[in-house]
Amino acid sequence: MGKLEEIFTEKELNRIRRWCIMRQQNGFHGRPNKPVDTCYSFWVGATLELLEVFQYTNFEKNRNYILSTQDRLVGGFAKWPDSHPDALHAYFGICGLSLIGESNLRKVHPALNVSVRAFEYLQHLHQTWREQSSSSSSSPCAESLPVCT
To answer: For residue range 114-126, what is the model confidence (pLDDT) as tens digits?
Structure first.
């Protein structure tokens, strides 16, 4: 994470940004000449967030598209409006809503597709393990780490 500028030139990053922004119609589609699909609200939205240009998309159109795929009888979100909901599109629909700041949803980490809360907890665990490792003996065994029995 945070390495895009080391891999791509500014011209290449701008081309990627433009290509991704052009994926929005109301929601997002993954390829030109393909229909809009709920899951791309996360995939393309997260990419745009990482490229620091997500704020230039139309959040309201994206939100309206995602909500138009909601099944109000059984719950969940579908790939397209008037389709049957499924777990994948329900999950990515919620993630897409999280990216645009929908109230009552935890913020999703765009690079890892986990909540920011989970990311922060994982960082805390990593730091704890790092500190335990550096303070333990030089033995390759991690004697201070808990063992499940």
So the answer is: 999 999 999 999 9
